[in-house]
Amino acid sequence: MDDRNVTDDIDKLAREEHELFERRSHGKATDADHERLRQIEVLLDQCWDLLRQRRARREFGLNPDDARVRDAKTVKNYIG
Question: Tens digit of pLDDT for each residue in 13-26?
Answer without folding.
Answer: 999 999 999 999 99
